[in-house]
Amino acid sequence: MDYSVVLLLCGFSFLAGFVDAIIGGGGLIQTPAMLFTLPQYPIPTLIGSTKIPSLCGSLMGAFQYGRRVAVAGRFIAPMMAIAFGASWLGSWTLTRVPNSFMKPFALVILIAVFIYTLTKKEFGQVTRQSVPAHQQRIRMWAMGACIGFYDGFFGPGTGSFLVLGFIALIGFDFLKASAHAKLVNAATNLASVLFFVKEGTILYAVAIPMAVANLCGAFFGARLAILKGNQFIRIFFLLVITATIIRFGWDLVG
């Protein structure tokens, strides 16, 4: 592997980890970089190789947030287990059926999310306590199943969907939602890593250096998000959703 190629991919991976730690969406940077830079490899190999950097970034983000943000441990641990199993099932399903229908579906949802977040200035700015504990449990576990499967089956935008779910369904603010999203995303990424390791479709010569770069980006991204707070994360959320909409729209038109 050419060292200049590896360094270029590490740069993209650092940026992906930085963005992903704040609000999710790092896959929009890292995955296209792999596909464009190493077109000679099969797509499953490239996708599988991005999962190790993504896992490292998620773990670093989860660690940074966990030190400063209170986590609903009794609910999040079962949610992570459910998301892990659902992500594995999603990855297995991907090897048997096409996922091309997911892009238009996700695009419609993202446009609705963008409009809602833009018009509701108070969305995600404070933690609401109106959701009873038993409802939080049910909703979190359902989110883990649905979004976990989505991440294993398709992937892009998973972190943003998790943040949205924690805010809209559980009542968290942006900072707390991001902290919990990182934990769940780590579980889904771990499931995908184990699946692709089993399938033997990982370029370790690229994945390991990218993992270090992604981890470093996640460190700085999480620190910045914690320092700046909810309003900063909200703006970043809108930017990432916009980039995701443009990416999906471009792919559909092209």
From TrEMBL:
Pfam families: TauE. The keyword Transmembrane helix applies. The keyword Phosphoprotein does not apply. InterPro entries: TM_pro_TauE-like, TSUP. It comes from the Bacteria. Keywords: Cell membrane, Membrane, Transmembrane, Transmembrane helix, Transport. It is a multi-pass membrane protein. Its main location: membrane. The chain crosses the membrane at residues 45-63, 75-95, 101-119, 140-170, 202-220, 232-250. It is found in: Cell membrane. Belongs to the 4-toluene sulfonate uptake permease (TSUP) (TC 2.A.102) family. This is Probable membrane transporter protein. It comes from Spirosoma liriopis.
